Each structure stands twice: as C-alpha cells, then as structure tokens.
Here is the input.
Amino acid sequence: MKKRINILLASIFTLLLLFTNIVKVNAASANIQVTSGTNRVVVGNTFTVNVKVSSSNVLGVWEWTISYDTKKLKLMSGPSTVKDYGDSKIKSKTYTYKFKAIATGNTSVTVKSAAVYDYGTEKTMSLSKGTKSVKIITQAQLESTYSKNNNLKSLSIDGLKLTPEFNKNTTEYKVEATSNTERVKVNASKEDSKASVSGTGTHDVTEGENKIKVTVTAENGSTKTYTIIVNVSDLNPINVKINDKDYTVVKRESKLEAPKNYEKTEVTINDQKVPGFINKTNNFTLVGLKDIDGNIKLYTYDSNTNQYKEYSETTLNNTSFKFIIPVYDNMPDEVCAIPTGDGSPNNRLKDLYVDGYSLTPSFSLYTTSYDLIVDNDVTSVYVSGDKLADSAEVEGFGEYSLSVGNNRIVVTVTAENGENQDYVINIVRKEADPIPDPDPVPDPDPSEENGFDTSYDIDEEGRFISGFEVESTADDVISSISFKNGCYGKIYGSDSAEKTSEIIATGDRFVVYTSDGDEYASYAVVIYGDANGDGKITSIDMLYIKRHVLDIRYIVQ
Here is the structure.
C-alpha cells in the first residue's frame, strides 16, 4: 500500500513539473517601460517621455495608445497610437514623445489598449506596463524653492592682505599695494554651489584707488556685491575735481589708448609730466582721468585755463567737416511751396491685394489702377493691404459682392495732412457657361437578363469580389446587392457552410444563383488587410503580411 502511494505521489509530482514547463513555454512575457528625465515641470515648458517595449523573446507585433490627462498635458510630438512589427531579430524598441505642461497638478503618462505578440509563436505575451508620474508647477512655485544664499565663503587677493579680515557679512574691504603694482588677482569661493560669482581673476590697477567688485548671484537671482578698494601708492597724486566729482590723472601710458588722428605726447600738469595725446589739426590735447570707481576715460585738457572736458569721438567740436552743396540744371527760380495742412503728406499704400488672386499689374505704391478677372462662380472677394505711413487712414478694405461684368472697387488713402489718394481695382466676373441640352433617355430594354448590380468591386478575370467594410455580416452584404430576373445570392465560409448573421472574411465565396437554382456566378471574397481570414484587421495580420513579404511563411491564395 505504501509503495502504491509513493508511486502515486511521484506521478503527481511529474505532472506538476510537466505542467510547470508547459506554463513556462506559453507564458512569454513583455514589458512596456515609460520613463522621463524629469519628475517636475513648469507650466508652459515641454519635457520628453520615452516608451520602450522589450522582451527576452523576439518581438512579432506590438500596439498601444499613449494615455495622459489632456487637461494637464498636450502631446507635441510622437505617435498617439503605435502599431508596429519586428524583423525576426528585434527584442526591444523605443518611441519618444514630447509633451507640453498646460495646467498645474500631479499627472502621469502611461499606455492603454496594449498588446504584444511573440514572433515565434504568434501568441499574445503576458504584459507589464509602466507609468511615469510628473508634477506640474508654476514658475513662481519653482522659484520659491530656489536658494537665497548669495554669500561668499572666502575672498582674497594674491600677496595682499584684506582689511578688515574676510567675513561673509562684510562687503567692503581695503588693500594697500606698492607704487609699482600694475595688476592684482582676486580669488573668491561661493558658499552655495548653486550660486554664481563674477569679478574674480586678474584686474589692472593704477596709482590711487582702484575699486574692484565681486558679485554673488544666488539661485533665486538675488545678488550681493563685495567691494575691494586697492590703493596703489602714489607719493604725489594729481587730483582733479569736475562737477563735484573727484578724479586723479593717469600717469601710466599703458593704461591709455590713442584715438584716431591723435599722437602720443607728454603733458605737464602741476609740474609733473604725464602721458597724453595731441591732434595737430585742431590742437586738442587729451589726458586720462580715473574716477573713484577705477574707471579711466580721456578728457580734453586746456593748459591755459587748467580745465578738463570729457572727450568723445562723436563730439562735434573735435571733428572737421566738409560740406558739398549740389546745384542741378534747370532748377526752378522759385522756392517750392510748403505742403498744405498739418502733418505728414504721405497718402500711399505699402501693399494692396485681393485674397487668393493676383492683380495686374503687380502692386507698386505709385501704380493706382489694377485689373482682375474671376470665374462666374466667384460671388465675392476680400480686398486688403497696408498703408505706408502709420498716421494715414484707409477706407475701402473689406469684402465685396461681385456682379456679372465689371466691378469697380476704390481704396482711398487719406494722409495726416488731409490729402487723398485713390487706388482703383476693376474686377470682371465672367458670364455663366450655357447649360447643355440633356442627353436623350434611352428606351428601356423589354427583356431582362440574369445577373446582379452592386457597388462592390468585381474582378471578373481573377473571379473575386472586394470593397467590403470590415466586420460586415453576410446578410448585410446580400441585402445591399440588387439581383435581376429572380436571381439570388449566398455567401459560404471556408468550411462550405452558408453564412447569414456571421461576419464575412477573406476566403469566403459569394455565389449567385438563377431563379431555377442553377449557379450563375461565383467569386472569392477578399477583405484587404484581413490576411489570416478571420474577418478582422488586427496586428496579427501585419505579422502574416510581413512573413509573406520576407518569404518566411506564405499566405495561401
């Protein structure tokens, strides 16, 4: 008895193993992943979503529809519905979508109506689908999360000492440098990695005070400026006051650049020789002045009055002019009269057109008459254009009803000073074509032959009928055909059984009988796209067609 129980248990265990193996064979699986590089997006911005179908088995056919909340997202690019197939090798494929965020809130992107077929077995795979969640926020909400930290972590100048010692809350410092110092290097590091710093690096300096600014911009856009005043020693500075502002005379030629038509020279100010420039045509002398912020500009210097004036290449008194006044032949003896009225006399159009048509001649602002011929079925046109002067007024733009014959349309431009200019368009609407005499009605044929009339496509040579709507029933097809002289029709399935309420499919036969029951004609039913003969068009038909084209498995005709 115990031996029989052991044999029974062993048999059950073997069956379980066999069933498990069978399940593994049939349970091919696929995965549709939905991913994006962002979890948060601002209203009005776009973001990308990738949808990837994959399997350890070769993919045959796959399909899905992208699913998302249309109140929060707008699909900008990418196929809303995918129906695709592989090439006997593909195990994965990725599709890219671009969405625009249009409203705030939490939303997601996924796929629906999804199906994936195994290339080898042509069976549906078990499927797992992913979802990408996204939070949509306003720009204000985003900016509220930005860091406000605009502090420096450190600040220094190579070889020189800041006074006072650096503190992130102290924004003004002084540095003393020797008289031969021409440039300094500023170093700084930010306290927040999301902030940005400007003003570091090498700076040119001259005698006197040189102001260097280091600005920290926080992630939220707020700024803090640290100022370093580098005082380069000058034992005998030349100080100048212009409009109550303090300046010092620049003593280094390397800090100055000669403008056009000026030559280098030496200028004596307060018994000190300083670099300058001179224009030998107008005898102007230029020297460099530095303000309290360290900015250097050229100024004209009058040694007689000890006066300074800021120099500009566009200053009229620094430039020589030559005027040429032309005199033409046959010029009138009298001066031209001033235009009447106040304002601009411009009463011209910049453009004139009739929507959908070309004028003859082509528009020109000085051409005021145009022609156009239209067909008799054109009952109205729209005239538009644009004025040359914004101050002018235009009357005559708009829609016009057309009568047969000539239609004169006038567009009037009134200038700001009140002067008018008319533009005329003559539009000729053609006469209607004469109505031809009706064809004589043929005499009816007294004898009616066997046959039928149908709107479906009949190929007599190939002996097949097509043009059906997908999933039409046999009764619907028969009732839509007009039979003659007592003839009638039937549709038979591939199993030779007559179809009535069943849907027709590729491979069925349509047979026409005479009133005596004799077979009059027979045609094969063809539904384009129904490759597997089930009367429907699905992704599996795509796989059948592809295999037929690739000579892998032929569709039996």
Notes: Residues 1-25 have pLDDT under 50 and may be disordered. The two ends are 61 Å apart (CA to CA). Helices lie at 2-26, 139-143, 474-479, 539-549. Residues 4 and 10 are 10 Å apart (CA to CA).
